[in-house]
Amino acid sequence: MLETILKRERDLGTPAKTSANTVRATIDGTPIEVPEGTSVMRAAAEAGINIPKLCATDSLEAFGSCRLCLVQIENRRGYPASCTTPVEEGMVIWTETPKLHELRRNVMELYISDHPLDCLTCPANGDCELQDMAGVVGLRSVRYGFDGANHLSDATDASNPYFAYDSSKCIVCSRCVRACEEVQGTFALTIDGRGFESRIAAGQKQDFMDSECVSCGACVQACPTSSLMEKSVIMMGQAEHAVITTCAYCGVGCGFKAEMKGQEVVRMTPWKDGKANRGHACVKGRFAWGYATHRDRVLKPMIRKSIADPWREVSWDEALNHAASEIKRIQAKYGTGSVGGITSSRCTNEETYLVQKLVRAAFGNNNVDTCARVCHSPTGYGLKTTLGESAGTQTFDSVMHADVVIVMGANPSAAHPVFASRLKRRLRQGAKLIVIDPRVTELVSSPHIKADFHLPVRPGTNTAILTAMAHVIATERLIDEAFVAERCETKAFEQWREFVSQEQHSPEATESITGCRAADVRGAARLFARQPNGAIYYGLGVTEHSQGSTTVMAIANLAMATGNLGREGVGVNPLRGQNNVQGSCDMGSFPHELPGYRHISDDLVRGRFERAWGVTLQPEPGLRIPNMFDAALGGTFMGLYCQGEDIVQSDPDTQHVAAALAAMECVIVQDIFLNETAKYAHVFLPGSSFLEKDGTFTNAERRISRVRQVMRPKAGKADWEATCALSNALGYPMNYAHPRDVMDEIASLTPTFAGVSFKRIDELGGSVQWPCNDDAPEGTPIMHMDQFVRGKGKFMITKYVPTSERSTRRFPLLLTTGRILSQYNVGAQTRRTANVAWHSEDVLEIHPSDAEERGIKTGDKVAIQSRAGETALTAEVTERVQPGVVYTTFHFPESGANVVTTDSSDWATNCPEYKVTAVQVRLVTEPSRWQEKWTRFSTLQEQLLPRAQARAQAGDQAPSKAAATPSPVNEPA
Amino acid sequence: MNTRIFVPRDTAAIAVGADDVASAITAQAQALGLDVQIVRNGSRGLLWLETLVEIDTPAGRIAYGPVQADDVPGLFEAGWLDGSPHPLRHGPTDEIPYLKNQERLTFARVGIIDPLSLADYQAHGGYAGLRNALAMAPEAIVGEVVDSGLRGRGGAAFPTGIKWKTVLATPALQKYVVCNADEGDSGTFSDRLLMEGDPYTLIEGMTIAGIAVGANYGYVYVRSEYPYAVDVLARAIEQARRTGWLGSDIQGSGRAFDMEVRTAAGAYICGEETSLLESLEGKRGLVRAKPPLPAIQGLFGQPTVINNVISLASVPIILDKGAAYYRDYGMGRSRGTLPFQLAGNLKRGGLVEKAFGLTLRQLLFDFGGGSASGRPLRAVQVGGPLGAYLPESQWDVPLDYEAYMGISAMLGHGGLVAFDDTVDMAGMAQYAMEFCAVESCGKCTPCRVGAVRGVEVIQKIRRDDQREHQVHLLRDLCDTMFSGSLCALGGMTPYPVLSALNHFPQDFGLPATQPASDEATA
After folding, report:
1. Beta-carbon pairs below 8 A across chains A and B
2. Which of B510, B423, B522 is nearest to B481 (CA)?
3. Contact residues, chain B, for A64 at CB < 8 Å
4. Which of these, A951, A866, A857, A872, lies nearest to A901 by C-alpha position?
5. Is-contact A415 A282, C-beta < 8 A?
6. Are A194 and B446 inside 8 Å of each other by CB?
7. What is the DSSP letter of B362?
8. pLDDT digits 0-9 by tens, B449-501
9. DSSP-based three-state secondary structure for B506
10. CA–CA distance from A675 to each of A297, A645, A827, A898, A941 (Å)?
11. Is residue A860 pLDDT above 90, yes or no?
12. Residue of chain B whose Cα is closest to the Cα of A151
């Protein structure tokens, strides 16, 4: 094989077995000992003996169809398939005999008699298992000729933007079908027809795009030939080297192999040894990486005096010096506290750490916050208060040991697809499922998945429903008394028990509040309490409420009361939205906390940082993001350094945010695109994508995984380098040779990270779960094993306080917001990929009865109005939402979902109440006034970019054309 | 006093006009003011005599056949109600040599009783086996079946008792009994004859299997082309349930067993037991790899007894009369009886239940009466479409599982199809490959691609396109299919192909002295 072509990962043929019993046998004279149930094929592979195979792969259960892996076993008749034959004690197995050679060659001859002989021009050339096996078995001729029946002229289905299905290359091994079932759990693929007519079919013999296929790529990954092949490989050919890195989309944190040709990505393939994803991926991580080289990337630093001025491209030095002098000027004029920074959950731990260090040490205040403010800050608060640590308690693998799972306010099929696949695999094995969600999410009912209970909770009443479940558990003697007695604070528990046992918290009494049938609530509570292992997974539908923190504590209460913490298969598991939202919180991004969640007012801790950083730190917490906006409008906060976050699009009450930014004197935005926030900026520092830098991301299971640079920073500096340079320009020296040095500094200052280093991560196989220190040198997969981090677990009283955001005569509907599979967050990345083929605009889901009342049909344009603002979207009439509730996503800036959301927020953490906004919906014919304004402003800002200016000077009419285009950022790549 | 007249309501009889005959009898009796009672029984299995009408006379049941509706007035006129002579009269049914010379154990009641009459059933020894079983420990029931020597009558001949023992020994909260009634082999009809003629025997056999292995539910997977069998079984199950022979407390014994009929999906491959289980689960009929054995992980992943109709229907008599009674029939390791099914070019087609050990020649001539065409018989395919073609030189081999294996043939389900000397054996070989290609589930390569190539290669042989080379390739292909296929469909298709090639080389344009290899494999 050419050494310029990647080596495939070793495939042991069938999945590992975990039986404690072992069996012994000999294979080709080599004695082996394997766990009971291990296939002959895998046992042989582990002993270094490679039995030819095509339909077997170690990510799928054995199937036994290709018949290449036949072996001979002494005292057994025939030639059993080694993939489906388990090793038995005393077996004497032979894998290479003349008879087997003949059989394998003859089977291969049959395959090739119905396969194109175009290997040299085939996209899989160099990476084809069929080709390899033909070589291995020594096929020299096809005696059947090629004039017989065949599929050589079958048509190719190229409907999916990322991969093609070439039926003529298909060998009907069913690996794709099995991957769709076993790995992904979508059941979109099947074999159509039988016998020689058998062909892969998507859906009801539809094109892939028209079928239920979710484009996760599992089928492409599984295909041994070029039948299912990435279009990028068809275009570019095989990669010549590969780099292991970590996906920059959601909080699952999948390990990927970036397959490269020099500086160019050929494809991203899920890394088999990635501990978060175990070789699986989703449509975003696997395919939607084209944004990294999209022409919209801004690659030069730019400055301007006011946001009405054209941008001017300048050198890095000029941009940084300008930014530094502006910050100094503002601080001189308005005070030390008049500037601040926002760290990014999209950036690496090291970069985040540096930004908060910059704010605390170079700006000299604690005005640093992060986007977790608007998503999982209640998780941090709630779990820290009850359990003692601001993080999920488990590994993703843990779900494979759960007997009952609560999924609350989360739609993992869309937002955490790879975890959803794992969860569904467990559910298909028989685990029970309780879904608490206002919407009928995919988990409620999908192929081979049916929730045992769906509690369609009315938005804003999460606390009430969990307290009602606790009531059932407390009053029906379902509490794990032994666990509580040993592990939790007695007094707090007794108070809690007394509280939840009150009749007013019974499912019957709260039915009118939550909208959930009391019998269902009782049933769900009993189910959860009675199964051996109960696990709770939740998302932003829990946190983004006025009682977000209370609900998180109610979840922790429920887990403690039922003894579901501190071992495999249980736990409290926040599903983190962004790739490094856990990490950005860990790194001290909140105004009141230094890295490792230690309060800034703690003199001892602060002292350590002061010594290490050589500065005096402010002991008082700084401003939170909403406070910054208010202060800006109040004239006391005038400068902001915002790295990799689009607060204008993602934060609630857009008009308020925009007004705040417009009031500032210097907004420094560091991003890869001219995002919505950058349109209000005075300094633009070009960012680097995850492909352009080294570092680490920390996923929802506290797993710190390496991000590796696969290409040079397109703008010349990685984000961490830009932050260092800004700090140096400000006069506070930051000199790191490599992100590994930053991590070493983090480790030296943060007890939970004390054992973490890039070297150690590599030694541990590419990732480690914190805490990682002398007590846990290999990291901590499961937390709170022997005792809680805070010592005894603390039950908290969770009194339901209705949100002030409630339906009124004027705003009779409740708007709740969420995500869709193909788009990610503000869409800055996914909108610049072919993922728009699945979702090209945000729509408003409305129940048929509400729609009927308003004369609304699917496809109609409707206005959504709240007390904060108004926007217009296309309506989709659906029973996924309940009457009285409407739903949308916020992936497109022109949708203005956050024009409608309000300043209502979590009482403890200010996390915005995105999930509940009282609105009215009505038919309209035109965009809202905000949308018209946005279009004008956006068009203007696009024209102020140097590239638009250059086009205008060249006599190109592009700018005026652009002016006619409603939304320039909406163009697909 | 009324006269009982038996007119089969069996698919084979109905196909030749039994319903019309029954109507004609009713009409004629009415016209003549005669008091008759028509009983729609099962078929006696003397298919060349269908519609075989029996008159219940003081001298016993007198047979008339084949009766057409047109014959009815004449039969009345001749006084058939008294058993009077008529050209269609065959005398007492039980004395017809074809029937008299059989050893009917499993089919003892078929054609005699009203299939849906529980009283009739019990009057003829029905439920005696289950009554005994209800008083026995599961191990003892299984032991009895093991001792009887009963082997799977579906074709694979695996010892039934051993299979049950595995299911019994596999702990599970839920186990199943599945009856394979997807009788799809050409020239076979014994399952249907039994289900339509004596459904309670099957229900009783399944119930015994259930209480023996600890399964409380059963499915009968019936070929979709058998609507009458489905109907009769469904009604019988309903009555059994109503009378406490099925349900949560069978006859007050505290033992539970219930069952239902499922109509098959219409694919030959679903007669293969693992495909059948997939189909029962609502999936595509695809062969599963074994292990795991269905006895350990069968229907819905639970331990499952899956047996053929005849295997299960043979259980009641074993439990009634004891293992030794059944075991005393037969020869060698082939114990008991097999209902042979005579079809093809034979004068007297039908069902012949005999102990193992007789010869094909006896079946063909003593029972079958030689060819229907009057020409010499040339080849007989035994055991369905995947069975070997036997030339006359092999017709004296005793019908015994092992003896047949010795000549690269198989008894299978006991069906045989006879051909006279006009047959083109190369055409039959090609048909075998075509059959495999059409019916292949498509999972394994030797069968999916091999069968198609097999057809092409035989076509080339027949048109003398590099004949020698193609014959060599055909033998290679047969070896690949035999040794490499996942299930018996691909694995046994070489039997008819190679037997045709080896025994009738001249039909392939080869010299008659083709080295006769009896081995399917080289």
Report:
1. 104
2. B522
3. 289, 443-444, 486
4. A866
5. no
6. no
7. I
8. 999 999 999 999 999 999 999 999 999 999 999 999 999 999 999 999 999 99
9. helix
10. 10, 9, 10, 15, 10
11. yes
12. B449
Quick one: closest CA in B to A174, which residue? B443
Mutation target vs B (from A41, A194, A428, A448; most B CBs, 10 A cutoff): A194
Which of A86, A114, A194 is the closest to B440 by Cβ? A194
Of the candidates A270, A534, A272, A560, which has an alpha carbon nearest to the alpha carbon of residue A426? A534
DSSP type of residue A590: S
Which residue of A66, A86, A197 is in closest CB contact with B445?
A: A66
Angle, alpha carbons A32-A36-A39 (nearest 5°): 70
Is B291's CB within 8 Å of A107's CB? no
> CA nearest A745: which of A732, A758, A726?
A758
**Distance (Å) from the C-alpha of residue B418 to the closest C-alpha of chain A?**
28
Residue to test with chain A: of B436, B449, B481, most A Cβ within 10 A: B449
Confidence label for A621 from pLDDT (cuts 50, 70 and 90): very high
* Helix H or strand E encompassing A798: none
pTM tops 0.90: yes
Residue of B nearest to A83 (CA): B289
Say yes or no: B289 contacts chain A, CB-CB below 8 A: yes
CB contact under 8 A, B437 and A107: no
d(CA B132, CA B128): 6
User: With contacts defined as CB-CB under 8 Å, which chain B residues touch A172?
Assistant: 442, 448
Q: B442 vs A196: CB contact, 8 Å cut-off? A: yes
Q: Quickly list DSSP for B170-183.
A: S--S--EEEEEE--
Look at strands A255-261 and A241-246 and give their pairing: antiparallel
Task: Provide the token pair at A300.
Answer: 């030069």
Kindly tell me the number of DSSP H helices and DSSP E strands found in chain A: 32, 37
Amino acid present at B43: S
Enumerate the β-bridge partners of residue A258. A243, A268
Q: Domains of chain B, with CATH numbers?
A: 3-100 (3.40.30.10), 118-327 (3.40.50.11540), 331-420 (3.10.20.600), 425-508 (1.20.1440.230)
Class of domain A22-96: alpha beta
pLDDT score, position A393: 94
CA nearest to B77, candidates B20, B115, B31: B31
CATH topology of domain A377-573: Dimethylsulfoxide Reductase; domain 2 (3.40.228)
Say how far apart CA B84 and CA B75 lie, in whole Å: 9
CATH architecture of A302-306+314-368+581-595+602-769: 3-Layer(aba) Sandwich (3.40)
Is the CATH number of domain A813-932 2.40.40.20?
yes
B452 interfaces chain A, CB cutoff of 8 Å: yes
Considering only CB atoms, which chain A residues are within 8 Å of B269? 194
ipTM (interface predicted TM): 0.93
Q: Round to whole Å and give the CA distance between B58 and B50.
A: 23
Q: Note whether B437 contacts A: Cβ–Cβ < 8 A.
A: yes
Q: State both tokens at B326.
A: 């059944």
Res. A959 pLDDT band, cuts 50 70 90: very low
CB contact under 8 Å between A144 and B476, yes or no, is: no
B1 has pLDDT over 80: no
Among A678, A683, A649, A687, smallest CA distance to A666 is for A683
In this complex, the residue of B439, B453, B479 whose CB is nearest that of residue A110 is: B453
What would be the CATH architecture of the domain defined by A156-293? 2-Layer Sandwich (3.30)
Contact A67 B453 (CB under 8 A): no
The string of DSSP letters for A357-417 reads HIIIIII-S--EEEGGGGTTHHHHHHHHHHTSSSS--S-SGGGGG-SEEEEES--HHHHSH
